[in-house]
Amino acid sequence: MLLTQPDLQLDPLWALTAECAADLRLNRLNLVIGVYRDEHGVCPVPQAVQEAELRLASIAATKEYTSPSGNIEFNAGITDLVLGDSDLTQRARSLQAVGGTGALRLLAELLAITGPERTVHLGVPAYVNHVPVLQAAGLRIQEYAIENEGYLNVDAVVEAVRGARAGDVLLLQGACHNPTGLTMPVAVWEQLGHEMNRAGVIPLIDHAYFGLGDGLEEDLAGMRRMLEIVPEGLVAVSASKVWGLYSERTGCAVAVMSNPERGTYVHGVLEVIARAAYSQAPSHGARVVAEVLGDDGLRAQWRAELDQMRERITGLREGLVRGLTAASDAPEWPALADQRGMFLRLPLSPEQMARLRIDHAVYGVPSGRINLAGVPTAAVDRLANAILEVHDR
Ligand code: PMP
To answer: Quaternary arrangement and interactors, per the entry (predicted)?
Structure first.
């Protein structure tokens, strides 16, 4: 008989989404789940992705197994894209994964297998799935607070590294931090890289939103700088947001290693982990991304579409902060303008977030996170007024 698990943790965000769907108020705003939405509330498939899908369908390629590493062109394309034309790319070995989550899980298991004593140092508030993924791989977690009055607490991150033991891991989000929107300037990535070298700490970088903060190259620059400084590092790449491929479960685990022998070993371990879990990752999303990245025209089109997504998000953030600061001189608002990406973290308590839901039909996460991309431009002023009303009550 199956035993019951007393502390079963279902995803709380899906419960809130269901509550929103059942809300009959026409002006309800679902700002819970982290997907990009256009002005009409649609989570679109980019044109470049649609075009790639048409091309792939028209050549009716085989559905034969790909390889233990998945789609090799996809792995190479993603690695070139995120690491750039550099020595890092030469030192990297990659494996296609089942979404960014799957990449995180593969890398977490790699870390656990190769160092059972390791602790992962995790800044909180963290992405809701980080703790479950790391724990499922059997890793120990040490949390530290990353925020200070709405801004990144750089000293806290440095302290976390200095307090770590050699072989420990620092988990960082590459850009557009979920749920806080906090970003790390390149100089801080560089500083941390030197601290990590001194402490023997390995970076595990989760990149799910590159291109949605300050620009594609800008959002990748910090990670690249750190990886140039440290001997080895691991990157979990998600194709979900950047190519709109959420349900295709497309991602990539990238390991930048110090020499080819270690690269071959680590790659082999990743293949063994994947084989024991699901054998090979699903093919479609990776083929699409490989097609987009491998064709100059599609690639340029995708870049333009990514820019449009970013501009929409940036415009919404600016509009909301403008609305808040025009009506209120509370000290919390200016920090919101410094955040980047799809998420904005409101300085509101869980009770105030509940008021936002009950009184204003605005559904965000109790921690204060809202998905900016879920806001139609015409609703920005209403949202600002609703936030002010629950904040000042
Ligand atoms: N990391 C972060 C920070 C995320 O927000 C997400 C998606 N919500 C992921 C990883 C995983 O993305 P995927 O859907 O590709 O598994």
So the answer is: Homodimer.
Amino acid at 387: I
**How far is it, in rounded angstroms, from Cα 130 to Cα 243?**
22
Q: Is the pLDDT of residue 4 over 90?
A: no
Cβ 248 under 6 angstroms from ligand 1: no
Burial annotation 284-296 (CB, 10 A radius, 16+ → b, else e): ebbbbbbbbbebe
Atom of ligand 1 nearest to the CA of 103: 16
How far out from the chain centre does Cα 219 lie?
A: 12
Confirm or reject: Cβ of 181 under 6 Å from ligand 1: no
Query: What does the pLDDT look like over 239-263, one tens digit per residue?
Result: 999 999 999 999 999 999 999 999 9
- Which fold, 12-45+304-392? Aspartate Aminotransferase, domain 1 (3.90.1150)
The CA 100 to ligand 1 mean position distance, Å, reads 5
CA distance 119 to 142: 7
Reported as a pLDDT band with limits 50, 70 and 90, residue 5 is low
244 lines ligand 1 (CB under 6 A): no
Q: What is the pLDDT of residue 6?
A: 64
Instruction: Report domain extents, the chain.
Output: 12-45+304-392, 65-294
